[in-house]
Design goal:
By secondary structure, the protein is an alpha+beta fold. The chain contains 15 helices and 14 strands. A 9-stranded mixed β-sheet has the order 2-5-6-9-1-10-11-12-13. Strands 4-3-14 form a 3-stranded antiparallel β-sheet, with no helix packed on it. It has a two-stranded antiparallel sheet with strand order 7-8. Bound molecules: zinc ion (ZN).
């Protein structure tokens, strides 16, 4: 029975995410088949992943290692005893008619991660999102629907079992998320974590990272949850955000009108920017889980757990804290520098070579990123090594060259590499800061331009820029700008 809610009622959304993440192991979870993306259909299969009778699956130890490491990174408790179960259902892409997954004893539980949201002024807000569980499972195959040239006109579906048995981890969050923005940030943080760990490429376009959203709304002062709707089919972070914001709005509008919310699965339609009903979900499906009899239970020794924990890199949240609190970088700079692990590594290598954090950040986020975007290249592909960037920054800091000269040298260094110090010497670009040299030069220039000098002395002081230009032209930009400006001002005013 639905009663119409007054339009003044304030609602909040309650959102949880289920994230499937494909692990980047060389072979499948229970057999030695390769996992290469884009291989010819049904070319990476064997009796085990095809579910032939009499075969025996064996757990790939790399899958266990990656799942445990991710569990640690999500601050979960790792189960001392865990097992696999069969989840029974029929679908044409599932040759065994069951999926090997984990049911009541997942490998990791009770964790949390911290997300950081920036407001329009760039001020960060941090929030903890609980992690209910993480479990290991195998992926299903892929159905390809439609026609082909050979079978023109026919409607049919083809099945590709290459993906059958590819290892997945499923990460389930607590319903702690309250907006589309928080959900998108949560999903991005999961991707950062698996990329930092090197356990997945987190590529959403290729389906390595897939998110399903559970969402309901309730009046802000109500403890119990509203009716839950599941949304599927979002293949970017912004789609997650937009789908959720659409759905929050749809549900609140329905409640205001006194319309019921049905428990159902809805699909995000990217072209129409809306969710549509896919199927109703009255009651949960009975998958008749039972323990997988062909696989032994999983017990990881404390020594092994300790070993894997010690191999974890510094994780994104810890990096954000360190960059902001120790390096003094802004939340925005921190975000840009920690988002892409290759950029993070480049930045940190530059600091290690001696560069100050703020200057290194400015070069990487400014000129270098600009170059990467124009040339459509990755930071791992540029010839300028982090130590050389540190050298370049040092040349400016010690006033050996001006910032302008450094910018002029950058394209050559980015495309050809080499030592900035050597390049500066070879091209004779060392900054002229020597007072005597600058004084002689300035005197010559002033003498050569009596008219401009006269105008300057009659009050057109902006002409100092003209004289500065002349000095830079004569020195090919090598004159120390600060010293030159001071000396020019003094000399120009002198005869007044
Ligand atoms: Zn196989």
């Amino acid at each position: 029975m639905v009663t119409q809610a007054p339009t003044t009622t304030k609602y909040e959304a309650v959102i949880g995410l289920e994230t499937h993440c494909q692990l980047s192991t060389a072979t499948k979870i229970f057999c030695p088949c390769a996992t290469d993306f884009g291989a010819l259909p049904n070319h990476q299969v064997c009796p085990i992943c095809m579910g032939m009778p009499g075969v025996l699956p064996v757990l790939n130890q790399k899958v266990l290692e990656y799942a445990v490491k991710t569990g640690h990174a999500l601050n979960c408790q790792i189960a001392p005893y865990s097992k696999f179960d069969r989840k029974q259902y029929f679908y044409p892409d599932l040759p065994k008619n069951y999926q090997v997954s984990q049911f009541d004893l997942p490998i990791a539980e009770h964790g949390s991660i911290e997300i950081e949201i920036l407001d329009e002024q760039g001020q960060p807000t941090r929030k903890k999102i609980g992690i209910t569980r993480l479990h290991m499972e195998e992926d299903a195959g892929k159905l390809v629907h439609g026609g082909s040239e050979r079978l023109a006109g026919s409607t049919h579906s083809l099945v590709d079992f290459n993906r059958t048995g590819v290892p997945l981890i499923e990460i389930v969050s607590e319903p702690d998320i309250r907006s589309g923005l928080e959900a998108a940030e949560y999903a991005q943080e999961i991707r950062r974590i698996v990329r930092y760990l090197g356990v997945s490429d987190g590529n959403m376009q290729e389906g390595s990272l897939r998110c399903d959203v559970n969402i309901s709304v309730r009046p802000v002062d109500q403890a119990e949850f509203g009716t839950k709707v599941e949304i599927k089919n979002m293949n970017s972070f912004s789609a997650i955000q937009r789908a959720i914001d659409f759905e929050i709005n749809r549900q609140i509008t329905a409640l205001h009108k006194g319309e019921p919310i049905y428990q159902e699965t809805r699909l995000w339609e990217e072209t129409a920017q809306r969710t549509i009903s896919m199927r109703s979900k009255e009651g949960s499906s009975d998958y008749r889980y039972f323990p997988e009899p062909d696989l032994t239970p999983i017990e990881v020794s404390p020594e092994q757990l300790g070993q894997w924990q010690s191999e974890l890199p510094e994780l994104p949240a810890a990096k954000r804290h360190r960059y902001q609190e120790e390096l003094g970088l802004s939340a925005y700079d921190t975000r840009v520098l920690t988002d892409d692990h290759a950029i993070t590594q480049y930045f940190e290598a530059t600091l290690k070579a001696g560069a100050p954090a703020k200057q290194a950040a400015n070069w990487i986020m400014g000129d270098i990123t600009g170059y990467l975007n124009t040339e459509n290249r990755l930071i791992s592909e540029i010839a300028l090594q982090p130590a050389a960037l540190s050298d370049l920054i040092n040349l400016i800091e010690t006033q050996t060259i001006s910032g302008k000269i450094a910018k002029d040298l950058l394209p050559e260094l980015l495309s050809q590499g080499g030592s900035p110090t050597a390049l500066v010497e070879q091209k004779g670009l060392t900054q002229i800061s020597d007072t005597a040299t600058l004084e002689t030069l300035i005197d010559e220039i002033i003498q050569a331009h009596p008219q401009e000098l006269e105008q300057y002395r009659q009050g057109k002081t902006k002409l100092q820029g003209f004289f500065m230009g002349q000095v830079m032209q004569r020195t090919k930009g090598r004159a120390d700008p600060k010293a030159t400006n001071q000396m020019l001002a003094q000399k120009l005013k002198a005869g007044k």
